[in-house]
């Protein structure tokens, strides 16, 4: 099968593209001149060797044939840029059978006079066409005289042979010119196709009938007009159909959307280039293939195609999973329409397929992100409430431990409660990290320092059968992040890599600068610092990759993992404004890449803030602490601990109650929860500081609603111990 042509080439060769004249090459000019010279020499030779002089009969035939040939060329039916159909061959072949050489060549010249006057082809093309016709006509004359004789069947053979020689010579000379001028192969010119040769042979053979009428009764020549007119109309219809077919083929082949023509039995009849590119199969491989072979095996038959080919519907749209030559999945948006025959019966279907694989992948990423976001909100809310309860449980348990004699069963039981509370606190911190609600206190740092600092802790952790290497970029840019949280990220990734290599292997930690350009669907463009943890473990399959960041998802045996390690990594990195990328291949290993924004000059150079008014150092015994906490059990516990430490304590359940108390008391320290109904802790602090600029503020929180706390802000992270609480208050009071 001939390979499909591009749209411009197909259009040009079909003959319906706007006309343009190519500059001829030197070879084409030389060939054209040779044809003209050959026609001139052949004419002179024919006149000399035949020695014929025109008689009255010849002149009568010439007068009849010359105007008819010229007129016939005016009714040319174009079937492309290379060739057209007209009745002139019939009259030229008749001249070759009936006229001497000089009149025959004159007939050819007269035939092209109207073409010279009406067509806009360059002069050199017109000269070549005239010479081409002249040489072909002389070849026909020579054939007729060589094979001619007095017997009727010999005359018929000579006439038909002359017609065949004329057509073949004319087509051959033109095809050679097209080869040199436009680079068209003989097949591409269409001059030797069955339609082109067949029609011209039929028209040229009519020349024998014209000669017969001239010899017997010239008055019968008008009877040939009717079949010539009928032939002209038939050829016009054929030409229009051919143009329509070529235009459809050009549109079909050049369409950017993959298109298939599917037979009633489901086999593929034709495809375009876009379909070949989509499925990675050639046209020869696709044609005849059952369309079901291109559908993903997990797709269940919908019955829509059967209903379409049964004539029950005219079209349908659907989304299907398809497979290419390599077995990879393609998501396709299909628009399938039915084509009916003249009797309105289903004949075949046109299926247009738009590749939406990338769109589906983006949608899946969005769904995954939204799922993780929803899980994060749930986990964050649960962790916040747990932190309040754990603060109370841990606090009151600590009070009970102080009164329980050591060594008694009661003291042992209370100590177990303390251990369980600590484990629960760790779990809530991991949930908050995943939900991006963990309290972060970022600072400007170099990631290389984090790796070097933690490297000594990692070697005993991974074991002797794992080879640890580092590759740190000495020109690494700075980042702004919480160093403790980055250590947690690195630790979790290293532990995860170690568990993926139970028999030992290689573990590398790499840092580098990276610039992400526009167009990456997963990472915003900008300048980043990357941290890569790469292992040579067993790898992660595609199904597991989709779930590895979900909390409590684990592939480890029961009791050997909480399923929060990678969830914690994901949460910390996202809360820090970064991204996590994973690359894995089964049996080859896995690489986790952390992208963190490089700190620009606007962030690395902090503006100097105006100094706060100097605060009077107050003795602890004289200090008043205003505790604002909406949870009553936490409020009572904090008040009790601070009072035991010697402070005067005022308690408020919300911001309004705090403002009332502040209006009638001198307050030295505000200890407020961050997240409360109505006013937040930050709003309460701002209102009180408006009239008390020197007021010391400590925020209690187990849930960061904002991105992070500024450097220098005092934060008491829930759950906390008594010692941490009293030390924090004391340190704040001792700071001028």
Structural overview:
It is a single chain. The chain has 24 helices and 19 strands. Helix 14 (357-403) runs antiparallel to helix 15 (409-434). It has 736 residues and is α/β, with parallel strands linked by helices. Strand 1 (77-78) and strand 2 (84-85) form a beta hairpin. The strands form 5 sheets. It has a 5-stranded antiparallel sheet with strand order 4-3-7-6-5. The protein has a 5-stranded mixed sheet with strand order 9-11-12-14-13. A 5-stranded parallel sheet has the order 16-15-17-18-19, sandwiched between helices.
Helix content: 40-55%
In round numbers, the mean pLDDT is 79
Radius of gyration, CA atoms, in whole angstroms: 47 Å
Secondary structure category = alpha/beta
Strand order of the largest sheet: 4-3-7-6-5
Q: What is this structure's SSE topology?
A:
Layout (H helix, E strand, L loop, with lengths): L6 H8 L11 H25 L5 H19 L2 E2 L5 E2 L2 H11 L2 H18 L4 H25 L4 H31 L3 H4 L4 H23 L8 H30 L3 E6 L4 E4 L1 H7 L3 H4 L17 H6 L5 E9 L5 E12 L5 E10 L1 H47 L5 H26 L8 E3 L1 H16 L3 E6 L7 E3 L1 H17 L5 E12 L9 E10 L6 H4 L19 H11 L3 E7 L3 E9 L3 H4 L19 E5 L3 H13 L3 E5 L2 H10 L4 E5 L7 H11 L4 E6 L12 E4 L4 H13 L2
Parallel strand pairs: 9-11, 15-16, 15-17, 17-18, 18-19
Antiparallel strand pairs: 1-2, 3-4, 3-7, 5-6, 6-7, 8-10, 11-12, 12-14, 13-14
Helix pairs in contact: 1-10, 2-6, 2-7, 3-4, 3-5, 4-5, 4-6, 4-7, 4-9, 5-6, 6-7, 7-9, 14-15, 15-19, 16-17, 17-19, 22-23
């Amino acid at each position: 099968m001939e390979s499909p042509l591009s749209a411009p080439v197909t259009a040009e060769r079909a003959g319906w593209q706007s006309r343009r004249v190519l500059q001829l090459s030197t070879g084409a000019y030389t060939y054209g001149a040779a044809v003209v010279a050959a026609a001139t020499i052949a004419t002179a030779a024919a006149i000399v060797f035949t020695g014929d002089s025109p008689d009255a009969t010849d002149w009568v035939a010439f007068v009849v044939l010359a105007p008819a040939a010229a007129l016939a060329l005016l009714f040319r039916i174009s079937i492309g840029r290379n060739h057209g159909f007209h009745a002139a061959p019939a009259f030229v072949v008749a001249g070759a059978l009936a006229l001497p050489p000089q009149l025959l060549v004159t007939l050819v010249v007269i035939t092209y006079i109207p073409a010279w006057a009406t067509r806009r082809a360059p002069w050199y093309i017109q000269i070549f066409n005239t010479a081409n016709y002249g040489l072909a006509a002389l070849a026909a004359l020579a054939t007729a005289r060589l094979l001619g004789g007095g017997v009727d069947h010999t005359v018929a053979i000579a006439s038909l042979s002359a017609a065949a020689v004329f057509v073949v010579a004319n087509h051959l000379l033109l095809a050679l010119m097209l080869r040199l001028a436009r680079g068209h192969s003989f097949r591409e010119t269409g001059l030797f196709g069955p339609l082109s040769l067949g029609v011209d042979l039929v028209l040229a053979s009519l020349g024998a009938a014209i000669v017969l009428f001239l010899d017997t009764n010239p008055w019968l020549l008008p009877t040939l007009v009717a079949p010539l007119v009928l032939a002209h109309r038939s050829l016009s219809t054929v030409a229009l159909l051919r143009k329509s077919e070529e235009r459809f083929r050009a549109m079909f082949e050049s369409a950017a959307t993959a298109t298939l023509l599917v037979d009633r039995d489901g086999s593929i009849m034709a495809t375009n280039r876009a379909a070949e590119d989509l499925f990675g199969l050639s046209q020869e491989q696709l044609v005849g293939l059952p369309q079901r072979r291109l559908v993903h095996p997990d797709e269940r038959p919908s019955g829509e195609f059967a209903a379409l080919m049964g004539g029950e519907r005219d079209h349908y749209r659907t989304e299907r999973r398809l497979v290419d030559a390599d077995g990879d999945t393609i998501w396709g948006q299909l628009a399938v329409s039915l084509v009916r025959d003249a009797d309105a019966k289903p004949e075949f279907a046109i299926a247009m397929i738009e590749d939406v694989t990338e769109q589906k992948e983006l949608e899946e990423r969005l769904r995954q992100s939204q799922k993780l976001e929803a899980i994060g909100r749930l986990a964050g809310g649960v962790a916040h409430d747990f932190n309040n309860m754990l603060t109370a449980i841990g606090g009151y348990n600590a009070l009970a431990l102080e009164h329980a004699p050591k060594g008694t069963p009661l003291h042992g039981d209370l100590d177990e409660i303390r251990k369980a509370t600590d484990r629960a606190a760790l779990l809530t911190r991991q949930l908050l990290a995943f939900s991006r609600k963990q309290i972060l206190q970022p600072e400007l740092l170099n990631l290389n320092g984090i790796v070097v600092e933690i490297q000594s802790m990692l070697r005993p952790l991974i074991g002797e059968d794992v080879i640890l290497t580092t590759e740190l970029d000495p020109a690494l840019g700075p980042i702004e992040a919480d160093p403790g949280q980055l250590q947690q990220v690195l630790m979790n990734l290293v532990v995860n890599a170690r568990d993926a290599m139970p028999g030992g292997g290689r573990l590398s930690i790499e840092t580098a600068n990276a610039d992400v350009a526009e167009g990456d669907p997963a990472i915003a463009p900008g300048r980043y610092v990357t941290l890569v943890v790469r292992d040579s473990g067993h790898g992660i399959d595609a199904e597991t990759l989709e779930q590895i960041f979900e909390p409590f998802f684990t592939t480890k045996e029961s009791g050997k993992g909480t399923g929060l390690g990678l969830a914690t990594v994901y949460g910390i990195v996202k809360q820090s404004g970064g991204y996590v990328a994973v690359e894995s291949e089964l049996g080859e290993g896995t690489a986790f890449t952390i992208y963190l924004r490089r700190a620009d000059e606007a962030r690395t150079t902090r503006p100097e803030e105006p100094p706060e008014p100097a605060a009077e150092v107050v003795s602890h015994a004289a200090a008043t602490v205003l505790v604002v906490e909406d949870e009553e059990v936490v409020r009572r516990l904090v008040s009790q601990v601070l009072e035991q430490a010697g402070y005067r304590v005022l308690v408020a359940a919300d911001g309004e109650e705090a403002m009332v108390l502040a209006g009638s008391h001198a307050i030295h320290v505000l200890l407020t929860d961050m997240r409360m109904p109505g006013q937040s802790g930050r709003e309460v602090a701002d209102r009180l500081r408006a009239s008390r600029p020197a007021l010391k503020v400590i925020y209690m929180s187990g849930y960061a609603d904002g991105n992070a706390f500024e450097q220098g802000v005092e934060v008491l992270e829930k759950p906390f111990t008594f010692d941490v609480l009293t030390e924090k208050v004391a340190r704040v009071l001792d700071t001028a």
